Amino acid sequence: MEALFMLIPIAIGVMIVVVIAFVYTVRSGQYDDLEGPAWRILMDDDDPLVPHKRPKPGKSPGE
Description:
This protein has 63 residues and is an all-alpha fold. The protein contains two helices and no strands.
């Protein structure tokens, strides 16, 4: 019985911390776009590896 006098306030304290953390994440927009990050990896928008500038005639690419 004496253990309950210690465990109940600890459980209530942990519950309050969890609720505060949840409210903070909702207000900061953590749950606004749940599908975007999952689809973003599938989009193939990578830049090509070919350089945009053409090398000047007569020079090798390493110079």
